[in-house]
Specification:
The structure is a homodimer.
Chain A (H helix, E strand, L loop, with lengths): L7 H4 L4 H6 L3 E8 L4 H13 L2 E7 L8 H7 L8 E4 L2 H10 L3 E5 L6 E2 L11 E5 L8 H6 L2 E4 L11 H20 L1
Helix pairs in contact in A: 3-4, 3-7
Chain lengths: 181, 181
């Protein structure tokens, strides 16, 4: 079977205006204490691709416009809705009060391994991603509805945070796509 | 339920020697024409976490030791087996002859959407990831046993290649973990 590469025009992507108007998946991303603009920009790009609802950036994080973010977001800061909130705890409480379930992505006691995390009625849902070195703050984990852990079998302590976000977002979107069929 | 963060020592990760001796998943990564050391290093880190068999780097790509690769691999170039081959076509033919099924990760006609890619007896399996701008070379796609495409719904043309690799690797490893249970 022939697999000719799709040209850019054949991809028939949305423009910014139509993206803004399109339905999004009820998935929110909270980026707390993320210092690397490269990582944040990459997460914007991933959130654009999977039509996520909104990115919340909190605490001492890089925020757009930032040279590194713009370089890796490739324009996705103009499409994906985002807000900055200085106080992550207040934000988490606010969105929980709005009925959004919040899950920390972290290696922690009693966490749910990602392969065991099957969406039932957790949407709308937010995931918290934390600092590149220190991970998600314990006080945010304590406020969350659950903690999801990506199983890891090698020598390193963790995955890159933009890779982590891609894996978790795909794990969720994959289930939603399969449910649509 | 308490979700106390796991300390580094509690993670109880393998050391290099034990990693080398441990069983790996029969998954190979081919990185062809990848220019960014940051991306390659990040893919090494992901391949360490998921115990992949080997990374092949081909063509005009950055190779270890390279400052950017070492920065993002965080030591995973010392754990994950890797080889450099100048000629990607020869490599793909060689590993196909060894019984390894080869899949290009690309947006292409007649591709299999990732959510539809269920492992049956495709292992050992190799995935080809291509250049950051141009993607996988058409001549490699033509040699592959199949083409897998990550569905994308936004305005951007593609995902970052290290995020792409994380998503595809997780999609495979998730199925293997679920089959183990």
């Amino acid at each position: 079977m022939s697999h000719l590469k799709t040209t850019t025009s054949q991809l028939n992507r949305l423009n910014i205006e139509n993206f803004k108007l399109s339905d999004k998946y009820d998935i929110y991303i909270i980026l707390d204490q993320l210092r690397s603009g490269n990582n944040i920009g990459s997460i914007f790009r991933t959130s654009d691709a999977f039509k996520l609802k909104k990115i919340f950036i909190t605490g001492q994080s890089a925020i757009p416009p930032n040279k590194e973010i713009l370089k890796t977001a490739l324009g996705a800061t103009e499409t994906v809705d985002w807000e900055y909130h200085e106080n992550a705890k207040n934000l988490v409480q606010t969105i929980k009060d709005q009925g959004i379930k919040v899950f920390a992505i972290e290696q922690a006691k009693n966490s749910t391994l990602l392969q065991d995390f099957k969406l039932a009625n957790e949407l709308p849902l937010a995931i918290i991603l934390g600092n590149e070195v220190d991970g998600v703050q314990q006080e945010l984990i304590d406020m969350a509805d659950g903690c999801i852990e990506i199983p890891q079998f090698g020598t390193k302590h963790s995955l890159n945070v933009s890779v982590t976000s891609g894996i978790v977002i795909w794990h969720l979107v994959n289930q939603l796509l399969c449910a649509e069929n």
